Recover the amino acids of this structure.
């Protein structure tokens, strides 16, 4: 059976742990003449099957490149990996209350005791935080 280009890769180029950050970007630049699969393998983004063939993980490779360039892929992760992820939807409970939830208040940096002015519109609600420094609503928001 003929070997593919990914199987012909030099053994000295293979890494056990994938490169990340600036080292990954530098290596990708050095290997710009190679194919995407060969570059991913040389940077350590592969697994070896039982019959010693290499399977390239291009998804993780591309994610690592984006992360190394400073692109945030998953901003909405929970702090400890447990609980629900925010859906940006809410519903009115049987008792008439509308609960926003801790995920949203944490993301906005709100603390217990922060106050808001409620503006009701047709089919919408605006919450405007009261300026804590002088105890009044922002002047810009009142002019709307």
């Amino acid at each position: 059976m003929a070997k593919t280009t990914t199987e012909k890769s030099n053994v000295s180029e293979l890494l056990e742990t994938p490169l990340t950050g600036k080292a990954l970007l530098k290596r990708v630049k050095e290997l710009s003449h190679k194919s995407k699969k060969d570059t991913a393998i040389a940077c350590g983004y592969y697994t070896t099957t039982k019959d010693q063939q290499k399977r390239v993980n291009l998804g993780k490779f591309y994610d690592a490149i984006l992360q190394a360039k400073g692109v945030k892929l998953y901003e909405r992760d929970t702090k400890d990996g447990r609980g629900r992820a925010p859906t940006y939807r809410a519903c009115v409970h049987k008792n008439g209350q509308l609960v926003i939830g801790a995920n949203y208040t944490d993301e906005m940096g709100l603390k217990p005791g922060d106050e808001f002015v409620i503006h009701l519109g047709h089919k919408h609600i605006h919450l405007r935080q009261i300026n804590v420094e002088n105890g009044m609503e922002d002047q810009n928001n009142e002019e709307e």
About this structure: The CA atoms of residues 32 and 39 lie 8 Å apart.
